[in-house]
Amino acid sequence: MYYERMIEKYKELKNKDIVRILAIETSCDETSVAIIENGRTILSNIVSSQIEIHKRFGGVVPEIASRNHILAISNVYLQALKEANLTEKDIDAIAVTYGAGLVGALLVGINFAKALAFSLDIPLIAVNHIKGHIAGNYLTYKTLTPPFVCLMVSGGHTAILKIEDYNNQKMIGTTVDDAVGEAFDKVARILGLSYPGGPNIDSISKTGKANVKFLTHIPMQGTMNFSFSGIKTSVINYVNNAKQRKQQINVADICASFQNEVIEQLVEKTIKACKHENSNKLVVAGGVSANSKLKSELQKECLKNNIKVYFPELKLCTDNAAMIGSAAYYMLKEGIGLADLALTAKATIPLS
Ligand code: KG4
Ligand code: ZN
After folding, report:
1. Which of 16, 82, 180, 316 could disulfide-pair with 312, CB 3.0 to 4.6 Å?
2. Does the CB atom of residue 101 touch ligand 1 within 6 A?
3. List of domains in the chain
């Protein structure tokens, strides 16, 4: 039986000196395959993005994403082996994102991973996408180790976590409504900017002045939770009112104002959490960690408060399989996450 054999193989891999994991990520609109050695070295990391395909719809269309993953995955896999200069025989285990994400998209990666693991007779490791984003930092900073506080800012999640060790975390704060990336994307859309909105707002903000006030105070004051739907609605109302009055809007100023207020909220709560947890180490993860203003403001505040802050290398901020391979290595080391061939996709997974 495949799974029974894998239980033994998984145990043996724990003590192997060099472990190479081939990781697969298809949770949203990036088809990615990577090969990672001992959790910290990227041998290859191929990312095929569907952004151009989804742009004309203003966001990711799940069914179109699934179909394009099917078209791309074989070639991305072959390219990952080629770039690492390895053959299948050099791979010790397969890792795959099983959630959170778009179910149809995840299933493409999961089925490809299952077929590979079964045919190569090697273990299959089921990885939580969010755990992967955190691990993006282990690839960027080879000596970074837990514990630390993590600000998780992606298109689907916004939370502050205490990462106790590689596989254990507790939630300190979370958004009560929209994720921050989602708010960036929705505000971009109302301003007529193309998908994905976050990078566009980031660059347009550089030419604008933060001269519009959308909120009177930081939401969820006195807590370490976030809220972004209020500011999003405030921007939408501002734009609609201007349209009704046939007034011109200054997109760059709106972007800069929105971005400033969102980042003020993120920074204030994150610093508060670091103090509360008595932590002088902060790790930022998820797609929004690519935001230049978030980076400069957090760096400034962390310096003032004697906190060392880590951001993933730019290409590891957004979705990629390398981060999944790194997270899988630390699961393997602890003997957790071994999946059988009944593994299926999960749209959501609790953060802790
Ligand atoms: O982590 P990610 O690639 O996918 C999810 O797991 O959700 O994050 C994607 C999100 C999108 O909402 C995108 O607009 C946002 O990250 N994003 C940014 C920037 N780059 C990507 N948001 C603000 N500024 C950026 N530079
Ligand atoms: Zn992601």
Report:
1. 316
2. no
3. 2-137+317-339 (3.30.420.40), 146-312 (3.30.420.40)
